[in-house]
Design a protein that fits this description.
This protein has 140 residues and is α+β, with helices and mostly antiparallel strands. It is 29% helix and 25% strand. InterPro entries: Acetyltransferase_Butenolide, Acyl_CoA_acyltransferase, GNAT_dom.
Amino acid sequence: MKADNYLVDFGDLDPITYIHLRTASGLSAKTLEAAQIGLANSICSVIALDIDNNQPVGMGRIIGDKGCHCQIVDICVLPSHQKNGLGKRIMKKLKEYIDNALPASCYISLVADGDAYKLYAQYGFEEVWPTSRGMALLKK
């Protein structure tokens, strides 16, 4: 599919679609309850739509307190739609929001899986190691 067959813009996802995009893209599964709560508390969501069938094929979100700390999460594109520049287009929209809506000194972080750090570096993100070390806790 050609890159111009997609619309990437701000929008809201329903929890079922959100869960599908995460799992089908290789991200960890989320419960329906977690998805409902999380999506309702998003600061900004970006959706990539396949124009041919109007179906979501990728997404990205910003979460946080809108002032001091925010985090980019859920950047993903369905495997059948990868290599069309959608990750870049999703990040471009999220960066647009950051530049226009968040205050100076807001700390925006993300966790880069694999080689994804190369994508994020194109938008000004820098590795924080060895000054900082990312850590996580998954509630079970």
